[in-house]
Amino acid sequence: MVVIIGATGFIGMYTTEAFLKKGEDVVATGRNKLLGKKLEEMGAKFVELDITQKEDFSKLPTENVSGVILLAGLLPANAKADLEANENAADYFKINVIGAINVLEYCRKNKIKKVIGNCSYSDVSGAWGKGYSITEDEPRNFKFKGDHAVYVISKNACNDVMEYYNQQHGMQCAWFRFPPVYGVGPHGTIYVNGKAYKSGIATFIDNAKEGKNIELWGNPHIKRDIIYVKDVADAYVLALSSNKTYGLYNMTSGTQLDLEDQAKAVIEVFGNKEHKSHIVYKPEKENNTPSFLYSMEKAKKDFGFIPKYTDYMEMMKDYKKELESGRWEVLVDSGNKVAK
Question: Which terminus of the chain is more solvent-facing, meaning fewer CB atoms within 10 Å of its CB: N or C?
Answer without folding.
Answer: C
